[in-house]
Amino acid sequence: MTRIDRSAAFERARSVMLENDRGSYTIPTKGLYPFQWNWDSCLTALGQRHFDEDRAFTEIETLLAHQWPDGMVPHIVFHVDDEGYFPGPGVWRTGRPTPTSGITQPPVLAFVLRRLVETCRETAKAEDRARAMLPKANAWHEWFYAMRDPKGEGLVAILHPWESGRDNSIDWDEALAGVPTEGVEPYVRRDTTHVDASHRPHRSDYDRYMWLVQRFRSLGWDNAQLHDASPFQVVDPGFNAILIRADEDLASLARRLGASEIAEVAEARVAKARKAFARLWSEKHGQFVCLNRVAGKLVDSASVGGLLPLLAGLGTAQQQGLLAKRIREWRARSRFGVASHDPADPRFEPKRYWRGPVWIIVNYLLIDGLRRCGLDDVAGEVVADSMALIEESGFAEYYDPTTGEGLGGGNFTWTAAIIAELLTSAEA
Ligand code: GLC
């Protein structure tokens, strides 16, 4: 991109972020997602900091203000009423002062917070705000290992596909098949009134999503019970890698801010998780894959979740090289990278949400991971694809990797935020 193109693209990204700004939090997009989402908000702060540092901190503080007493940071905060989204607060019934959902999402918060502090202009102010957030981030990370790894194996399970952030990935098919649908209360989906139904999860998946919500609700959202009571327990390499990286970043930030006790416990969690991680490697696929904890076996599904361990520098140097090779192979089979699932798999669907489409936020996490592992050439290719997609199709929710078509919600906040972030970093 030329210099002028870059500043025009940045301005467009900024106007999307402003359009979706609700004062102290930002909605992902109008219509489809009218509340605050956990990992959307954190990644949004990365973009906001380039034009309003204060506002970026506020985004994360608002999310943390709704942390549960047990440490969980919920996946949605329902700040306002809006009938346009299902399942709303009346379905979750979590009993929180401001309604929230009852599950969580990938913990990118500390990863973002570190970046905010390290690159801010007003250092003293940023450090004070970050210092106040450290114990909260630490409580959330601790919650994961206490509640989602009850046997102390060093890896955490998600109990609902929505927790992964990759809602209907092929990764969940096998474990979801073990979730019943009997007794699911009648419901009306809203997502398919906003966007093309053929791009969204199937009804049969949705019934299972709802069954799990009802099951957890019937247990009063008591996290001490949910793990063992769930027929869906999946160890996602992408999710665990994000948690490990977040703990590394939390430790580094805590050391900088003089909170050595937090740094030590975070470092201990990282050390344990790193050792456990090797069991998620699949020789067959040459990448990491999910572990179905209920069945006690690896899942035969090569998704982008299995490439995300680059973000935490996991695996041997040779394995990291193989992950980069996967990215190149997938790019060679589609016009734009990085598809959310291996395009060579017959189950790949280029337009159906997390079963094939490219997501710019995932590209960003991969770019960071590739650079960390010294795989800069491949990182550069993923940056170039990301820029080409927004040039061609604007700030969409996700993109068809075979055509570059923008799909899902339009003027999407985190897509804009990540493009702003990439545009302002020297390598873009
Ligand atoms: C969808 C995505 C999830 C995201 C949310 C809001 O549910 O799968 O990752 O957080 O939309 O954008």
Automatic annotation (TrEMBL):
Source organism per UniProt: Hartmannibacter diazotrophicus
Residues of the Mannosylglycerate hydrolase MGH1-like glycoside hydrolase domain: 33-415
Entry's family note: Belongs to the glycosyl hydrolase 63 family.
E.C. number: 3.2.1.-
Enzyme class: hydrolase
SUPFAM superfamilies in alphabetical order: Six-hairpin glycosidases (SSF48208)
Keywords: Glycosidase, Hydrolase
Name of the protein in its database record: Glucosidase YgjK
Any one Gene Ontology molecular-function term assigned to this protein's record: Glc3Man9GlcNAc2 oligosaccharide glucosidase activity
